[in-house]
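Help: read this over?
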Amino acid sequence: MRDLDSRDVVTGDFLVVSGDVVANLNLEPALSRHRLRREADKNAIMTVVLSEVGSQSHHRGKRRWPVFVIDPTAERCLHYEEIGGKGGSRYVALDPEFLTTHVEIEVREDLVDPYIDICTPEVLAQWSENFDYQSLRKSFLHGVLKDYELNGKTVHTYILQDRYARRSGPSEVPPTNCTIQDSIIGSRCRIGSNVHIHHAHIWDDAVIEDHVDIQGPTIIAKGATVRSHVMKLPGSLVTFNAVVDNIPQKPRTGSGQLDDSSHEILNEGEDSDASSDASVGLVYASHSASTSKSSISTFASSDGDFDAAEMSRRSSFRSDPSEETAQDRDFQLEASASILDGLTKGDAADTIFLELNGYRMSVDASQHEVRQAVVLAFVKRISTLSETQSLGPVISRLFTDYKTLIDRVILDNATMEKQDQVDFLMLVQKHVIGRSQGDQILLFITKELYDQDVLEEDGVLQWWNDPKSSNGEMGQVRGLTQHFITYLQEAEEEEDSNEEQDDDESDE
């Protein structure tokens, strides 16, 4: 903290998060509350995010646990202390003044502290001014609250009631001998003992029983149950409310790859009458089946929770980004961050696509929102790489390696109205505004995807002629692309001329 303050690199509010936090929360409500509070009172220097679990929760054990004294009317933390543990006190000494200066106080020893704090630069200044501060809770938080009369700084709380946030240390997690790596776990899931999950997306209300080994990329949809001692195969997809039991192991070739002849669709946990419906309760053991556009659309439309007309409406082209809801923005931020992480690590295009589709289906995101997330991630990756490498080769290499991913987010190549292609280019145009070499990035991406037959001439020209692409900053960033557009227009005119000439010759 003192080093950050001395370097003067933090100029706005920032998050301090323990490296071992496991959580499924959305921080935006807490951030909004913090910002509003700051606007009203500049002395509110920190918001501590806490999780409500109940005083008899097993999380406590024999170790010490935190006690927060809170003024609920102002969400202000008045006192912090740690009690319990071996030989520790179980009493909290409170300043009697709390009872006279605050209409209401709560002594909360039913809260888990995951060490998620929203801080202002004033927090760094407090650390620098007091060299007694060594830890974030026992010294800093306790000291700031104790010295309120001296410095006037206040700390506030944001208490989660329906989200999970814990530290993953051995004292925080029951000893179930589980490992979870590179995975997303939804709300209200139940995971048994000796379960190993790697590279999987498990949706809300899923049940994973004891002694299950899930090796991804794998999607377990909402309400599905995986029975004990099941070994899941890479590329599997378990649909809504399915029950999976006793999946046979697939033979592998000498190279270690699955034998293509052994790929099949499994319908576990269904009776013989129900098994005739090939799109309900299925597990796709074939990697290609689980990542194709057709399999995803069939899978989604088969479930009763999805309304086909509503899906069609939400997936239609939306030209006005101002219509995005808070949920849309959450999807774009989280999805683009996941895609960017995959691009940075060099993950395969199929792997990134599988994870993206899993998340898209879990929140019912539209294709426009998917394209927005993909474009944002690619533009950020290009901007980073172009700081040390030439822009043209960077874009060519990136879109060559991930051509199949881009193909899958542009779906209407066979139609006359290239709405998805127009939408994609509009989003590229939007996200390069204000970036270094933004006009060059737009030109190189447009030309590269055209050369790779991802974008068609009609789609590029429809985008160029759309009034929205030429207004304001959108129009300013496309100046360099004019030369490429001129080339396409001249080529189109020449082709039309040749066709007319051929028609005249045939008439003769």
Observations:
- The chain has three domains: 2-167, 179-250+262-302, 308-493.
- The domain at 179-250+262-302 is CATH 2.160.10 (UDP N-Acetylglucosamine Acyltransferase; domain 1).
- The mean pLDDT is 77.
